[in-house]
Amino acid sequence: MESEVLIEARALTRRYGPTLAVDGLHLTLRKGEILGLLGPNGAGKSTTMKMLTGNLAPSAGEVLIGGKSLREDAKAAKRALGYLPEQPPVYGELTVDEYLDYCASLHGIARKSRPEAVASAKRDCGLADVSRRLIGNLSKGYQQRVGLAQAIIHRPPVIILDEPTVGLDPIQIREIRALIAALGRNHSVILSSHILPEIQAVCSRVMIINRGRAVYNEPVTAVKSAAFGAIAAVFRQLPDARTLETLAGVRRVLALGEGRYRIEVDGSADPREAIAGAAVEGGWGLLELRAEAQTLEEIFVELTSRDAALAEAA
Fold first, then answer.
1. Does domain 1-80+156-227 fall into CATH 3.40.50.300?
2. What pLDDT, in 10s, does the model give residues 62-101?
3. Do strands 68-69 and 60-65 pair parallel, antiparallel, or not at all (unpaired)?
4. Domain spans of the chain, in order of start
5. Which residue pairs from 111-120 have beta carbons closer than 8 angstroms and sit at least 24 positions apart in sequence?
6. Where do the H-state alpha helices sit in 107-169?
7. Domain ABC transporter: where (predicted)?
């Protein structure tokens, strides 16, 4: 049985005058998922995040959170949501305890239940040792932790994080990544980031947005193991490259010398079996045949660059 759907965006669209920032986007987040949202600058990521959190009304389309419509019943929908924008919404003149108690009150947590809610959020976000310190005196990494704590203090099923590691040093980045992974065990998360290794390390699924549309939406396991854009092949006897190019699934063949070939695939079929059969039939002496896995960076660059090239050609 499929996991419960916690966020569903249907044909989400946003216009700024004549500019189409988000173009009929469909997005689904299921229980237990950490979804990584990627895209180049100006792709529509921030606009999408603002619409998903109810901070910006869509021009068309609908967002459901926990089955509640953000348009029809915004308060009920937002109760199921925790949000950390790129700039943490913290007050530097308050202590960590004062701020989190204030956030708990905003979320409607009863006064008698707030101390436990604050203690639980601090425990999950590693803030117990800085409870009485002014937020303005904390490092940026700890301020991010406070921002995460306010996002989870009411224990929402969904957390949305917009660039949570921007401006942090490498040690702080590792700490926040570990914290997000830990939060993902009890919450479903949407994480927007420009840092591709961060997405690959933390997320279970990746969505790439370009020019307001989703151009890729696959599990991270597909990136790590299944996705490939080319095949490396080595033959004892030199085959005719034109024969290889006629095989189903082959886009282009590049001869690298000494019987080595790089065979680019077009995605319509996996040509490895056909290559092996042609090698046997032609007596080419097949010595090596392996898929060259694409990295997330290669997939990202290929999809966003291709879309930009098509737009320029049009």
1. yes
2. 999 989 999 999 999 999 999 999 889 999 999 999 999 9
3. antiparallel
4. 1-80+156-227, 89-155, 228-293
5. 117/153, 117/154, 117/155, 118/153, 120/153
6. 114-125, 140-152
7. 7-236
